[in-house]
Amino acid sequence: MARPRKRPSWDVRLVNSTSPVCLLNAARKVVMFNAGCERLTGWSADDVVGNVCEFRSDAAPGEVESLLSGLCPSADVLAGQASSVPIYLIPKKGQPLPRLVHFFPLEQDRQIDLILIVISPLKSPHSTAGVSPAQKWHAELASLRLQLRQRFGISSCVANSSSMQRVLTQMQLAKSVRSAVHFVGEAGTGKEHLARSIHYDADPKKRSFVPLDCRQIPVRELKQTVRRLLADNAREGDPSAALYPGTVFLINVECTPRDVQEAIIEAYQPGGTALTHDLRLMSSSTHELTECVNAEELLEPFYLLLTPLVLQLPPLRHRKDDLELLSQHFLERDNKGAGKQLTGFAADVLTQFREYNWPGNLDELSQVVNAARASASGSMITIPDLPLRFRSGVDAQSIGPAVVPQQVENLEALLTRIETEQIQLALEQSHFNKSKAADALGITRPRLYRRMEQLGIVDREDRLKSAT
């Protein structure tokens, strides 16, 4: 039987030392947090020991994870390389502390067994000497989260650009009232995330948030769900109120069937069930709803009900000031609970990110970072780690379409011909299923019927009837 390992003879001296020193094991778990660390940070050894250090900045001040992020060793340290890193250490109370953190990997039987961490004063808090780009973006992300939490009461949204700061200001207003909120923005710009943030910060009863995609949910199921939500809200004083909806969020609201629009309008009239039970209405679309009103796809009272407060979300290609911080945010989000901790991106990766147009917006950036993180073997994401679909997209955008001289055509005739061809193609590919054809074309089913009639496109069912 193997003999139990003896505790190092210097453990007691380290534990009682007034110099801030701590120890991690190879799995990044804190195994010792000495008196000097307790005095410096305000955290006790009982608070810290046993927790795992992760390279992330999303923990709130007062949570021990905010301290542990600064003590997380890089992959190079875990591979046996000593390192010194200037950081802002987050104490239990008070302002962040500029410190220099020294990591010393200790071997046992030729394997990294422990990591000794020594914390020393940083002579010049504003000096960037020795700070890697990854550490810089990590520190800036943590600082931005703190600013957003203090100013807007939100830290889950990364917003440094002026366009997004405007959105956050509007969100503050939305949290202070119960009126409807409508989000306009391209797919993947974070509309549902911001709607959830408003709901959970503003609903004192912490009731549920119910998203409904009016384009994806079958019409019959959507009707039943909306009517049930409008009828079955909790009564005042009901102990199970948290189980009932506090907000219904209509995604792709321009696809809402007319009779569902009418039911919602009625529910939000004075004395209606939605107002009685304080059910908040939020919605989203990828384009302005005035177009849908003009096309008679939305009832004007429904449009007015949806739009007391409208938030315009910019696409990612117009948020280049946020790009590095957003990339770091998604990377650190994926670090949470993971055995592999990555610190950032190589400079040429961030250059490619800036040059790319991101047609899929935040959703695409999140997916690219996640895939690259899974492929990375080092402590940072490099060009070879990027997924093929992203590199192909970069190549396609850099090459651009070939320039072919074109003859000028009559615009009205050209648009009519193209629309007719596309509708006929959608009908054929969907085997004349109108709902699927409308979905493929990105329009509502009523609009498809109207355009078919206006363009003289004969329905297959009508064709069969006339043949008989």
Output the CATH topology of the largest domain. Answer: Rossmann fold
> What is the number of helical segments per DSSP (H or I, 4+ residues)?
21
**Relative helix content:** 40-55%
Q: Pick out the low-confidence regions.
A: 1-7, 463-468
What is the end-to-end distance?
91 Å
Give the percentage of residues in beta strands. Answer: 5-15%
> Globular, elongated, flat, extended or rod-shaped: what is the shape?
elongated
What structural category do the secondary elements indicate?
Answer: alpha/beta
- Give the overall average pLDDT: 84
Structure write-up:
The structure is a single chain. The protein is of the alpha/beta class and 468 residues long. The protein folds into 4 domains: 11-129, Beta-Lactamase (2-Layer Sandwich); 162-233 and 245-312, Rossmann fold, CATH 3.40.50.300; 317-399, Helicase, Ruva Protein, domain 3; 411-467, Arc Repressor Mutant, subunit A (Orthogonal Bundle), CATH 1.10.10. Helices cover 44% and strands 15% of the residues. It has 21 helices and 12 strands. It has helices at residues 11-16, 35-41, 45-48, 64-68, 75-78, 133-152, 162-176, 191-202, 219-231, 258-267, 273-276, 289-294, 300-306, 323-335, 347-355, 361-375, 388-399, 411-429, 434-441, 445-455, 460-467; strands at residues 21-25, 30-33, 83-89, 97-108, 111-121, 181-184, 208-213, 245-251, 280-285, 309-312, 344-345, 380-381. The strands form 3 sheets. It has a 5-stranded antiparallel β-sheet. β3 (83-89) and β4 form a beta hairpin. α7 (162-176) runs parallel beside α8 (191-202) and α9 (219-231) packs parallel to α10. The model is unreliable at 1-7 and 463-468 (pLDDT under 50).
